[in-house]
Amino acid sequence: MLNDSASLNRAFAALADPVRRGMLARLSRGPASVSELAVPFQISLPAVMQHLKALETSGLVASQKKGRVRTVHLERDALAEAESWLTRRREEWEARLDRFEDYVTSITQENASDR
Amino acid sequence: MLNDSASLNRAFAALADPVRRGMLARLSRGPASVSELAVPFQISLPAVMQHLKALETSGLVASQKKGRVRTVHLERDALAEAESWLTRRREEWEARLDRFEDYVTSITQENASDR
DNA sequence: AGTAAAGTTAAGTGATCACTTAAGTGACTT
DNA sequence: AAGTCACTTAAGTGATCACTTAACTTTACT
């Protein structure tokens, strides 16, 4: 769960494509087969496979095959890793803004005491 | 603040590169000049410029030039947009797991009542 | 005026992407 | 046994990436 650069690279790259985000949105409502995932998109099945491969190697998704159907499901941890990287940035950013606000407040008070 | 696909594409693509994530990490601690941002990386300045351009067109970052120094700072909203897309997926995913848990519980209770 | 600093533009290159069509491979159906 | 279904692999293509070196453009300093 550490800040593994290569895994974040792949996760964010996977998220950068609207087809793959669409698949993740579908999968966040439950597992689906390859052809179910393909339905909303006007691309060939091989293209779908390539998107799925990107999602799998990023760790955002996993799948098992039973008979001739492959069932794909979301993987909680990779999603959380990407999310928490962003949250960390926002928190640092907000902490800085708070310090800045303190600074502004202190200046304002100085000015007030000048009058 | 709506789910603008093109803007999410660019934001996540920008986040997929470790150099750009490094710059964002630096910027979450406060504004910096172009050459300050370049320091931690062993790449040419033009390469740095290109990363900055990616960050700017993604909306994650903005900058102004004063004299010969360009100062870059984080833009709160684009960061929040990417973060909230991920949060939404996780929430849906968790809601589904809760429903599944309810289902498992109900099954278990049925089994218990069988005994 | 002359030089250095900080950034910027242009052009080229090898690698990776997102797609396609064509040709399989197994697994259920009839 | 033959046909169909649900993928899967392979190979090729045009576009976009991440870099580089070389050549400027603006400020600022002496």
Structure, described:
The structure is a homodimer of 115-residue chains. Chain A has helices at 5-15, 18-27, 34-38, 45-57, 76-114; strands spanning 32-33, 61-66, 69-74. The first copy, chain A, is an alpha+beta fold and 115 residues long. In chain A, strands 1-3-2 form a 3-stranded antiparallel sheet. The first copy, chain A, binds a DNA duplex (30 and 30 nucleotides) through α4.
Overview in brief:
The structure is a homodimer of 115-residue chains. Chain A is an alpha+beta fold.
Helix residue percentage of chain A: 55-70%
Biggest sheet character of chain A:
3 strands, antiparallel
Average pLDDT of chain A works out at 88
What are the secondary-structure elements of chain A, in order, as H or E? HHEHHEEH
Stretches with pLDDT under 50, minimum 5 residues of chain A:
none
Radius of gyration of chain A: 22 Å
Number of strands of chain A: 3
Q: Helical segment tally of chain A?
A: 5
Task: Quote the beta fraction of chain A.
Answer: 5-15%
Strand order, biggest sheet of chain A?
A: 1-3-2
Structural class of chain A: alpha+beta
Could you say which overall geometry of chain A the principal axes of the C-alpha atoms support? elongated
- Please name the two chains that share the biggest interface, counting residues whose Cβ lies under 8 Å from a Cβ on the partner chain: A-B, 30 and 30 residues
